[in-house]
UniProtKB/TrEMBL annotation:
<dbReference type="InterPro" id="IPR050662">
    <property type="entry name" value="Sec-metab_biosynth-thioest"/>
</dbReference>
<dbReference type="Pfam" id="PF00753">
    <property type="entry name" value="Lactamase_B"/>
</dbReference>
<protein>
    <submittedName>
        <fullName>Glyoxylase, beta-lactamase superfamily II</fullName>
    </submittedName>
</protein>
<feature type="domain" description="Metallo-beta-lactamase">
    <location>
        <begin position="14"/>
        <end position="233"/>
    </location>
</feature>
<dbReference type="InterPro" id="IPR036388">
    <property type="entry name" value="WH-like_DNA-bd_sf"/>
</dbReference>
<dbReference type="InterPro" id="IPR036866">
    <property type="entry name" value="RibonucZ/Hydroxyglut_hydro"/>
</dbReference>
<dbReference type="InterPro" id="IPR001279">
    <property type="entry name" value="Metallo-B-lactamas"/>
</dbReference>
Length: 339
């Protein structure tokens, strides 16, 4: 397996494309942004591979910085594009699906209390992005959790890890022949990143209880004890279990901050909490910031720490009494899943 790093204008940093070039087939995991076609072609040529050689493309999720080139590559090579069944409709960019998705997103932004001017700014930004970065893949083939695929002597096992999107996956790596090192490795997409925490709540409007789903995915990665994680952005993760624990702790710190905000200012809607957390936001950050606030408030409501009436959240009295000024964290309930 070869890691190809492609520059990315977004905050997560350079995208990773993973190349498997065997005697019988050539496979990519993720493709990078549409605007990086020349860079990807050059990188493939460095490995003596052309676009026409590509047989299959596996996508970790539908976002355009990971799937942006899938349509172009498929058109040139005839490659099969594979993606989790939950993300397939958005990867195909089906018009009806996108209309429904956009309507859901708009409804949520309104219910979160995002001002009309901010919503207008966000959708103007998105319309500009869609022209360049949301191409349609003509045909996709779906997979589900636990399915396996053999590439040469390498076996990919799909691990469904929702949270960042409904159909986000990781690919656990194994070998059909004996691996003398015994190393357990996994391609993590955006589920686990080395520098940033992936956005939860804003980057897929279809998800209910997104933080609950994401924390469960992190718990799986923590318990699985992989030796190396190959992320969707930046450099490999030497200790995926430790990184999963760090991200869980990050979300517990954010939950603590939100409860402190509600203690200080009283009942508030999502946008008010968002601005208290992140200050003034513009463009795409309006969506991801509000989504983060929403995901945490919904999780806190689910575990009985806050109450919501008509979009306004308040911390319950027992929680306010238990807040510790010396600690900025609050425990979050996490559902277990099998390893």
């Amino acid at each position: 397996m070869e890691r190809i790093s492609l520059e990315n204008d977004e905050l997560e940093g350079a995208n990773n494309v993973y190349l498997f070039d065997t005697a019988t087939e050539t496979v990519l995991i993720d493709t990078g942004e549409q605007s990086r076609e020349s860079a990807l072609r050059a990188a493939l040529e460095n490995h003596e591979v052309t676009v026409a050689d590509i047989d299959e493309i596996f996508l970790t999720h539908w976002h355009p910085d990971h799937s942006g080139l899938a349509g172009v590559l498929q058109e040139t090579s005839g490659a099969t594009v594979r993606i989790h069944e939950c993300d397939a409709p958005l990867a195909r960019a089906d018009e009806e699906v996108w209309e429904s998705y956009t309507s859901t997103q708009q409804s949520r932004l309104e219910s979160w209390g995002v001002p009309a001017a901010k919503r207008q700014q966000l959708f103007a930004h998105r319309e500009r992005a869609e022209v360049a970065e949301y191409p349609s893949v003509s045909s996709v083939t779906t997979f589900g959790d636990g399915e396996t695929f053999t590439i040469g002597d390498q076996i990919l096992e799909v691990r469904h890890t929702p949270g960042h999107t409904a159909g986000s996956v990781c690919f656990a790596l194994g070998r059909s022949t004996t691996d003398a090192t015994g190393r357990r490795e996994i391609i993590t997409g955006d589920t686990l990143l080395p520098n940033y925490t992936p956005n939860i709540g804003g980057t897929d409007a279809r998800l209910d209880q997104p933080l609950d789903q994401y924390l469960s995915s992190l718990r799986y990665l923590e318990a699985a004890e992989y030796d190396c994680g190959w992320p969707g952005h930046r450099t490999p993760i030497a200790n995926p279990s430790n990184r999963a624990r760090q991200i869980i702790a990050h979300h517990e710190q954010r939950a603590g901050r939100i409860l402190s905000i509600l203690d200080r200012i009283g009942p508030a809607d999502v946008w008010t909490v968002c601005t208290e957390l992140f200050g003034g936001l513009d463009g795409f950050h309006i969506l991801v910031g509000a989504g983060e606030a929403y995901a945490h408030l919904e999780h806190l409501q689910q575990q009985g720490d806050v109450e919501s009436v008509d979009g306004t959240y308040r911390a319950v009295d027992e929680v306010l009494a238990a807040l510790d000024s010396d600690s900025d964290t609050w425990p979050l309930a996490i559902g277990d899943r099998s390893v």
